[in-house]
Design a protein that fits this description.
Distance between the termini: 56 Å
Strand content: 15-25%
Number of helices: 8
Number of strands: 12
Strand order of the largest sheet: 6-5-12-1-2-3-4-7
Order of helices and strands: HHEEHEHEEEHEEEEHHEHE
Largest sheet: 8 strands, mixed
Helix content: 40-55%
């Protein structure tokens, strides 16, 4: 009955509704065009680093995570672009770690949105984290990064930690393939956000506070473009119930062993 109450009741009403839909679609197309122009300019300047390990398919590396107070623990570094194959590898490693927890730290600019949307199915014994620094033998330590699809994958851990002054970065879901844009990205972003909200309601692993935090971050990031990242630091993560307490700075020390 409620749906019928808002439906047009005359041909003129239906015509007005159709015109309004057309106007909205044109507005979305114009916003897409503006976002594409900005993204092309940004991606042109970032092509020089496309060969960096961050922009290669993600690899898993066993090593250790050490906090500033000297405590170290075994962990896995997930570095590079995330995909559904990456999630399969993380799931396999987590199941091998049973009955214990697997700590997976990320250094990733993102990856496929499909991977991020499926991250809720990861095993419950997964602890996700983002360290301050990543250290490799014979090289200067560098800051760890976790943004875009990585941020949502970080949120899928049953325990989540942002160490020190680092943060994870969110933006609305887009389907970009640099340097060209896919039409309809903002509309797709809104649809994807709605679908993920429904998916969150059916995900038994998410406590109500985590669901509320995911919804809040999703709504806050919808207005962000691909180069406009909404940072989430440790203090805000604690306030949202995503992290138990603020943790000291930490460095992930990479073992120069085999990448998996």
């Amino acid at each position: 009955m409620r749906i019928r109450a808002v439906l047009p009741k005359s041909p003129a009403g239906w015509l007005s509704a159709v015109c309004m839909c057309v106007v909205l679609l044109v507005a979305f197309a114009m916003l897409d065009g503006m976002a594409c122009a900005r993204y092309k300019a940004w991606s042109a300047g970032s092509e020089a680093v496309s060969s960096d390990r961050l922009y290669q398919p993600a690899a898993l590396m066993d090593s250790k995570l050490c906090t500033a107070d000297g405590a170290c623990t075994s962990a896995v570094l997930v570095e590079g672009l995330l995909s559904t194959d990456t999630l399969v590898k993380i799931e396999e490693r987590a199941r091998r770690a049973l009955p214990g927890m697997l700590t997976a730290c990320f250094n990733s600019p993102g990856g496929s949105y499909q991977a991020a949307s499926l991250a809720g199915a990861l095993p419950a014994n997964l602890r996700t984290c983002v360290a301050d620094l990543v250290a490799r033998p014979g090289a200067q330590p560098y800051h760890a990064l976790c943004a875009s699809a990585c941020a949502w994958t970080w949120m899928a851990g049953s325990e989540r930690v942002i160490y020190g002054a680092n943060s994870v970065g969110f933006h609305a879901p887009y389907e970009y393939d640099a340097p060209a844009c896919v039409p309809g990205n903002r509309l797709k972003g809104l649809v994807a956000a709605a679908i993920d909200w429904v998916r969150d309601r059916d995900e038994p692993r998410y406590h109500e506070r985590v669901r509320a935090a995911r919804t809040e971050l999703r709504l806050a990031s919808l207005s962000r473009g691909p180069t406009e990242v909404l940072p989430l630091g440790a203090d805000r993560a604690v306030g949202l119930g995503l992290q138990r307490a603020r943790e000291p700075a930490a460095t992930f020390y990479v073992d120069p062993g085999v990448r998996r």
